Amino acid sequence: MSTAPGNPFPYKLIATDLDGTLLRSDETVSERTREALAAATAAGAAHIVVTGRAVPWTRHILDDLGYRGLAVCGQGAQVYHAGEHRLLTSVTLDRQLAGLALSKIEAEVGPLALAASRDGLDGEVLVGPGYRVQEGSLPVVAFDQVAELWSAPLNKVYIQHPELGDDELARIARQVVGSLVDVVMAGEGVVELLPLGLSKATGLSLAARRLGCRSTDTIAFGDMPNDIPMFGWAEHGVAMANAHDELKAVAHEITASNEDDGIAVVLEQLLGT
Description:
Layout: E1 13-16, H1 31-42, E2 46-50, H2 55-65, E3 70-73, E4 78-81, E5 86-90, H3 95-109, E6 113-118, E7 125-127, E8 141-142, E9 154-160, H4 166-177, E10 181-187, E11 190-195, H5 200-210, E12 218-222, H6 228-233, E13 236-239, H7 245-248, E14 253-254, H8 262-271
Parallel strand pairs: 1-2, 1-12, 2-3, 7-8, 12-13, 13-14
Antiparallel strand pairs: 3-4, 4-5, 6-7, 6-9, 9-11, 10-11
């Protein structure tokens, strides 16, 4: 869908993933992309961030952007009001089911390295022995005993295997525990266990209703398999050039990479600029 100069922007809602999509590798947003989003919102669209990151790992980026709208965080578990620094909705993972799921996966593939995201505006990310954390300034809290994982409500559990790749680990975990929890691959080294039925699509649909928008009003941008449900919900799904092949396979369009202003390329075309 495109529009000529002077016509309204064809979508009411622009949903963007963060890592690998809106953000460049240095966790910044280019000036070109900022300007394209500003032009689209000036033309009547709302921009909503939809990320796998929980609120504590997202808030500083939104603040830096001057972003004051709604954001969907934690793979859809949290709807967050950035302007008010307020959590509007939150879904937690059943810890008993999560523990059962972990034991079943480990029975199949052997010991896992674990991490978990605690619920809440200031929820800590707990990281266990052997879990490889991506470089960056995001805060984590180390734990030694698995029992520490279950001491407070969680949004998700992260799993890593010393030998299996991410796609293979996610595939096996989905086969073994897909009836207990949802399993998503959200990035390099990031395989997550989520509440059953939770996805970016469920969180986005909640946020969209608050904004008076529908799926048919929405264009979505992403790069990883965890964006597939969001693409299924939105009217138009745009995969970045750097996207995972599984997402490209279901995308309506493929744009330039996150490093090359892929979001701006599409928005500028729709704006006729």
